Amino acid sequence: MTQATASLVILGKDADIDNFIRKTRSNILDVKGEVLGESIKAVSEKFMDTFWYGGVTSVNAKEFDGLQTLIANTTYNTVHAGSTAGTALSVVKLQQAIDLITFNTPTDLFMTKAMRRGINVYLDSIGDKFTAVRNEYGKMIEYFRGLKITTDDHLLDTETASTGAYSASTGSDNSTIFILSFGPKAVCGIQGPDQVETIPLGDLETKDAQRWRIRWYCGLKFEDLRSCSKLDGITTASTVTA
């Protein structure tokens, strides 16, 4: 066996709660809860941005590597759509990327909403549809060839391709579709002994406020190259083809 290491990073921010507002606002509104809730939401947004694009556009020792960096082996787990300028999504290329997964059974297709719309238009043109079911909460879940379609607003339609391969998160009109499975040998989030912590730091000397620190020691692990894949270099400006 070859020993490998996946590193944790510190993700978090400080949240200052104004004492005057806290003391004088109606007790119907929990000011502390509102401020901490917004700060924790900001931390989760940063995590998802890093989940996809961390460590890609620049070297940043404070970020963990995102999936665009971790899933980057063109032999085992990556299919390029085509040219440097980006190429229309090909359903054949998408199924080729799905077929690269041989270690696990993939469960999810992650894409932007524009990509999903493009596939829907193509399926409508050939008289086909996404398979759709309702989950236990009544939400409609769409499937493509048995894989759940999941859209994520943190995935971008502004990616750049270089020699047909993903190179940066901004600069053009390209996008990537990820085919993922989750588990200890596939894509797996990692963290320290504690989950997200909110730590009271007390009153500040420089202003009339209390400070709380939101802290999370977290990272991302991708162990087996055959457990997940991606199709990159897809332009959102063209019609989906067979």
| Residue fraction in strands | 25-35%
Rg for CA atoms? 21 Å
Measured between the Cα atoms of the first and last residue, the distance is: 42 Å
**Which sheet architecture does the biggest sheet show?**
7 strands, mixed
Low-confidence stretches: none
Mean pLDDT comes to 89
Structural class: alpha+beta
What is the strand tally?
Answer: 13
Q: How many DSSP helices?
A: 5
Give helix % range: 10-25%
Shape: globular
SSE sequence, one letter per element: EHHHEHEHEEEEEEEEEE
Sheet with most strands: strand arrangement: 2-13-9-3-6-5-4
How many structural domains can be distinguished in the coordinates? 1
Give a written overview of the molecule:
This protein has five helices and 13 strands. It is α+β, with helices and mostly antiparallel strands and 242 residues long. The chain has one domain. It has a seven-stranded mixed beta sheet with strand order 2-13-9-3-6-5-4. The mean pLDDT is 89.
Characteristics:
about 240 residues, alpha+beta, 7-stranded mixed sheet, about 30% strand
Write the layout of secondary structure elements.
Blueprint: E1 9-18, H1 19-24, H2 31-53, H3 67-70, E2 78-80, H4 91-99, E3 108-111, H5 113-125, E4 131-134, E5 140-144, E6 147-151, E7 160-162, E8 165-168, E9 174-180, E10 187-191, E11 197-203, E12 209-222, E13 229-235
Parallel strand pairs: 2-13, 3-6
Antiparallel strand pairs: 1-12, 3-9, 4-5, 5-6, 7-8, 9-13, 10-12, 11-12
